[in-house]
Write a structure and sequence with these properties.
Shape of chain B: elongated
CATH superfamily of the largest domain in chain B: Transmembrane di-heme cytochromes, Chain C
CATH class of the largest domain in chain B: Mainly Alpha
Order of helices and strands of chain B: HHHHHHHHHHHH
Strand content of chain B: under 5%
Oligomer: heterodimer
Distance between the termini of chain B: 73 Å
Number of strands of chain A: 8
Structural class of chain B: mainly alpha
Number of domains of chain A: 3
Radius of gyration of chain A: 23 Å
Number of strands of chain B: 0
Shape of chain A: globular
CATH architecture of the largest domain in chain B: Up-down Bundle
Number of helices of chain A: 24
């Protein structure tokens, strides 16, 4: 390990990069990757390093501009301190003040959380990625700089940390080395939540200092609130795209693939993650043929923002989160639907159903349902005809953290898979104890600089190992087709990148996609071969 | 009344006041967003695998199926056996469970001393050779006391050794963490020594409690017993002032956050409370937020970047 003895107070160290990840420290992957050699993570260009802070670990996914003068540094530190106070204010942070206070005040520092964290483990136990390391920085800063008498008692209470620009800039980066999967919180004997604290740090930087990854903010929620979608697809472009998707779907399946829009008074408003429109149109098609075949009354919306369930605000900013989710609520209310069904997107589920439960208020409180429940009803109650033999290949299931650990939606998707996939098997561990895909909290869409390498090598490493371990050695032979079912758009993107990075299509012939694709693949009224095995996409 | 009696009264008052203030601070924090974490034990028929009512088709049309017995069972396992620590950190459990269980026994010991003192104020004699009920009370008091002190003192010592010998634990431990554990070890050791040498049947301690509840000056107690009373009083006062009083917070951590999955319904009281939160001033200063607006205005009106 390059920097084995890093301590929390080193976060304010004035010199250089705090930690460098060395690939030799990473734990080995299972068969057939025992001899897999990781290339070193590429260094950022001089130009980038001069422009943005990389003083944590040399990895960049949040762009923290380098201050030009010492005076500017001091102003930014002062701004951070103002933000810290607002984080503890009933007005500015009513949304999460209670859980924040509880997690700040009551950690007994037993380190149980560390053993649950896939990033800490997969990094070769790098100190800076320990869940407690990050949360203790925040805790110490609050105890020393906000609590009365904090500076006087700092040595005794363990709040010995200096607040300077190095602390602030490194903390901003460190908040984006956690996928907010909350596996650590699940194991905390007290119930403290390091994932929540990471998100609170992200909020402080975004809501007070305007610092957030461009993929989440400028090219995420801001784009969504100005064009209608985080992908930039406008309502007009969507109509063209869906026309082609319908035609292609009907050609592929020989079934009706009608995608209705803006049907006032329909029973269901289905909202997809707009990533599906561009990257996985077969997901949209599968939903359409299943819903049509089951005779559901359903519609999509072409309303501004109403056709894209993405809500990256969930990951970093309460105000942006609320703006987006209220647009979804407004769309549902205007259409007069009986319920909103969330498509295969974990964070959209959590944004609209769990957290949204506290902000879709009054008339806007249109009931929301997971597509897992809708699909279970269709498949298990015989509303469509299926032939499980069409899915006679090894299938394993990835559990999206937001859907399982944060919402308890665990069994419907399994009951469907048990019915339609004779070779379904679980990953270990699974369900609410799953490992994050490594792309959680927006990581999956962060494709710039050297972050994708870190994401594949570190945050996705446990998931890659889990995927490999779900199949036998014989099944891992590239002659055998096998399938990772990831019923979440962001997880799917991350698993695609993981399989690409590890060349798993060529080496093992592992394909990935969602749940609806498996259902469509075994519908007896559809042509065979909905899932394509001739290429990786 | 003598000085140590005043100290005991102050310690009890401070302890209760600090715990109430702490509980009120959490209880009176604004209604927050939902942030539950599964498994949630009151999800009837689903808790075992971590499921929730959100798995159901048209879940809002069905009556909530809550399994409060399972929730109580989970709470009991957590409080009495420290189930979570056992499951996820056995090394910690080996010291933490005896420490906590020992503290429960010590609380039981104080309650039994109080019961004995009340009984004695009616003229009964709580002793090894008294009536059957009072004999049981006598032996229970001694049993709870000795077992509690050994377990809590031993557990605190174990935690101290673990915290100071494990490299990762050492990094995150502060002087106050060591001080707290040493404090427990010392109190347990002094109390044990006092009773083994000067008050094996806990009669003197019962007399002290009797003097406290009847507000009469205590008769002279020995040096060790006096030291015991001073230390216990200081400890009772100290615990709620530190994060050792996490038992107060744990209730809120579980019931207000981790297991809080009550759905909001149109027109409900919760809905009204949440609507009221939107009138709070947003205050944040980033370019995409107008700090002067209320939450309701800021998240529904056209935003700065639109």
């Amino acid at each position: 390990m390059s920097n084995p003895d890093i301590k929390v107070k080193d976060i304010s160290r004035k010199t250089g990069q705090l930690f460098t990840l060395e690939t030799k420290d990473l734990p080995k992957l299972p068969y057939p990757y025992e001899d897999w050699e990781e290339p070193p993570i590429e260094e950022l260009s001089e130009e980038k390093r001069a422009k943005y802070e990389t003083n944590l670990d040399g990895i960049m996914n949040v762009q923290v501009p380098v201050p030009k003068t010492d005076e500017e540094k001091e102003q930014l530190v002062a701004r951070f301190l103002i933000g810290l106070r607002k984080l503890l204010s009933k007005d500015s942070n009513w949304t999460f003040l209670r859980p924040l206070m509880l997690s700040l005040d009551n950690c007994v520092k037993c380190n149980t959380c560390s053993e649950a964290c896939p990033i800490f483990e997969a990094s070769g136990r790098a100190e800076i990625y320990r869940p407690l390391f990050r949360s203790d920085i925040l805790r110490r800063l609050v105890n020393k700089y906000i609590r009365p008498g904090g500076k006087l008692t700092a040595k005794f209470t363990g709040a010995d940390i200096d607040l300077n620009w190095e602390t602030v800039s490194r903390l901003a980066q460190l908040a984006y080395r956690c996928t907010l999967c909350r596996r650590c919180a699940q194991t905390c004997p007290m119930g403290c939540d390091n994932g929540l604290l990471s998100r609170e740090i992200r909020k402080l930087f975004s809501q007070e200092m305007g610092i957030a990854p461009s993929e989440l903010h400028k090219d995420g929620t801001i784009k969504q609130l100005t064009t209608g979608s985080s992908t930039g697809i406008t309502p007009l472009a969507l109509a063209d795209l869906m026309e082609f998707t319908e035609e292609d779907g009907e050609e592929r399946t020989g079934m009706s693939c009608k995608i209705p829009f803006d049907k006032s008074g329909a029973d269901i408003l289905l909202i997809h993650n707009a990533g599906e429109f561009l990257s996985w149109p077969e997901n949209i098609q599968a939903f359409a043929i299943i819903f049509e075949a089951a005779g559901l009354s359903w519609t999509l919306s072409s309303d501004f923002v109403g056709y894209d369930s993405v809500n990256y605000g969930l990951f970093y900013d309460d105000t942006q989160y609320a703006r987006v989710t209220l647009k979804h609520a407004e769309t549902a209310r205007k259409l007069g639907v009986k319920k909103v069904v969330l498509g295969e997107c974990g964070h959209a589920h959590k944004a609209a159903m769990a957290i949204g439960d506290r902000i879709w208020l009054g008339e806007s409180n249109v009931p929301r349902e997971s597509c897992m429940a809708t699909l279970e009803d269709i498949v298990l109650n015989g509303k469509i005809k299926v032939d499980p033999e069409r899915n006679y290949f090894p299938v394993t299931l990835h559990d999206p953290c937001n859907m399982t650990r944060s919402m308890g939606i665990v069994e419907p998707q399994r009951r469907v898979l048990r019915k339609i996939c004779p070779q379904f098997r679980e990953m270990t561990p699974h369900g609410v104890h799953n490992y994050c895909c490594g792309g959680g909290s927006g990581f999956a869409i962060m494709q710039s600089n050297n972050f994708p390498s870190w994401r594949s090598m570190v945050s996705g490493r446990k998931k890659m190992a889990q995927i490999l371990n779900a199949f036998t050695r014989e099944e891992l032979d590239p002659k055998v087709n096998k399938y990772v079912c990831a019923p979440c758009s962001n997880c799917k993107g991350q698993i695609r990148d993981l399989l690409n990075y590890y060349d798993a299509w060529e080496r093992c012939h592992i394909q990935y996609s969602g749940l609806v694709e498996l259902i469509a693949n075994c519908m007896t009224d559809a042509k065979e071969g909905f899932i394509e095995w001739d290429e990786f996409h | 009344m003598v000085a140590i009696q005043y100290l005991t009264i102050i310690s009890v008052v401070v302890a209760f006041a600090a715990m109430i203030i702490k509980a009120l601070r959490y209880a009176m924090a604004p209604q927050s967003m939902r942030w539950e974490l599964y498994p949630v034990p009151h999800e009837k028929g689903k808790a075992e695998y971590g499921g929730s009512y959100l798995e159901e088709l048209d879940w809002w049309t069905k009556p909530r199926q809550k399994d409060l017995f399972n929730e109580l069972k989970e709470m009991a396992a957590e409080v009495i056996l420290l189930k979570g620590v056992f499951h996820y950190n056995k090394r910690a459990w080996c010291s933490s469970w005896p420490f906590h269980f020992g503290l429960y026994l010590c609380i039981g010991w104080l309650v039994l001393l109080l019961l004995g003192a009340i009984a004695e104020s009616t003229g009964v004699r709580v002793a090894a050779y008294g009536g059957a009920v009072w004999q049981i009370l006598y032996y229970l008091t001694a049993g709870f006391g000795y077992a509690g002190l050994v377990l809590s003192g031993g557990g605190a010592l174990g935690l101290l050794i673990w915290r100071s010998s494990d490299a990762a634990m050492r990094k995150f431990s502060s002087p106050i963490d060591y001080f707290n554990l040493v404090f427990f070890v010392v109190v347990a050791a002094v109390t044990l020594a006092a009773h083994l040498t000067a008050d094996p049947g806990h009669a003197a301690m019962r007399s002290y409690v009797h003097a406290m509840i009847t507000l009469v000056p205590v008769r002279e107690v020995g040096t060790l017993l006096m030291l015991e009373i001073i230390l216990i009083s200081l400890l009772i006062m100290w615990i709620p002032l530190t994060r050792m009083s996490h038992f107060v917070a744990k209730y809120f951590l579980y019931h207000s956050v981790r297991w809080e999955d009550e759905p909001n319904k149109r027109g409900s009281k919760l809905d009204q409370v949440l609507q009221a939160q939107l009138a709070r001033k947003i205050g944040w200063g980033a370019p995409h937020i107008d700090s002067e607006k209320t939450w309701g205005e800021a998240v529904t009106e056209n935003t700065k970047h639109e």
